Amino acid sequence: MTEASLYERGMATRRSVLGDTHVNGATARQTSFDADFQSFITEGAWGSVWSRPGLSKRERSVVTIALLAALGHEEELAMHVRSTVNTGCSAEDIKEALLHVAVYAGVPAANRAFKIAKEELSNRGDGQ
Q: Which of 24, 53, 85, 87 is the most exposed place for a label (fewest CB within 10 A)?
């Protein structure tokens, strides 16, 4: 696959998961300083990994949410909880992923992640 098509596939996947508003904003904020990084994540994360056929976007959302919660990446976690509206990942899926985080990465990580997820789900009217 050519670099251009990998980038294009990545951008299409990124838009389908995160939404046009988010991607347009990230693109508008891009500078010469972070342009290479933006290309890297678009091609690598979105064009290669998120575009693979092995898992659905819903399943990738669950995995991503668990990993971000376990690693304490709160801003990215919030963004991916918001994006579940586009991936079919439900509030129940998020809850189950965060219960796994509690067991395998620790209660403090899951506690913070539950707080973030509850806030994001509530903001979109999906709070429990």
A: 53
Burial group, residue 112, by CB count within 10 angstroms (0-12, 13-18, 19+): middle
As given in the structure block, the two tokens for residue 8 are 């294009």
For residue 38 the two structure tokens come to: 């933006």
pTM (predicted TM-score): 0.92
Q: What pLDDT, on a 0 to 100 scale, did the predictor assign at position 2?
A: 66
pLDDT category of residue 80 using cuts at 50, 70 and 90 = very high
One-letter amino acid for residue 33 of the chain: F
Both tokens assigned to 32 = 């010469």
Tokens of 26: 């990230």
How far is 19 from 38, CA to CA, in rounded Å? 16
Which residues, including other chains, have CB under 8 Å from residue 86's CB and lie 6 or more apart? Answer: 16, 17, 18, 19, 57
Tokens found for residue 98: 């965060």
Are residues 112 and 74 in contact, defined by beta-carbon separation less than 8 angstroms? Answer: yes
Q: What CA–CA distance (Å, rounded) separates 14 from 8?
A: 10
